[in-house]
What does this fold into?
Amino acid sequence: MLNSVAPDKIVPPHGSRRAGLLLAFLLGVAGCSSAPPPPPRLSPPLPDAPLDLTQFTTKPCDLMTRQQLVTFFVTSQGTASSATGKTACTWIPHDTKALTYIASVDTTSGGLEALYHHRAAVPGFAPVFVHSYPGVHRDDHDGHCTVETGVAEDTLLNVTVTATDPKLDAYSDPCYEADRFAGIMVAYQANRAP
It folds into this structure.
């Protein structure tokens, strides 16, 4: 039988202990200093061509042409008014006073993603697409609907339709009418974009 002699202790080479400590330190610092990953996106992604509608925050009546407004029986350019720091435009068809279209551009609320983060507090929250841009229906009830369409990361195009006459199609399906109105705006502005 062979007698083997085991060393009492194993001594690593002089520099390898320092290298091991330095590596452990760097890994610890890297783990502590890295930022947490961003939360996952809740809203659908925007198309590759975001729309810059910032010029319409103060001039929303310029979002559509007179020729486009005629499709909705609107013969005047619209009336701008300011409320809560935002400017909106109101159009009323010439054949009835029981229907209104209101549009505004919102660049301060955080865009569609912020709307999704607060969706529990949004009455009637329902995802929708308007001319391939993601949006949300809200406040949907007989004769009233708002569609908020994400046209850029921080920008929403808001369109509200209000119909007070139950005989109007827009009374029973106001979101369809809001989507149609917003869709023409989005298509027009997308075609104008450079």
User: Anything to note?
Assistant: The chain has one domain: 54-192.
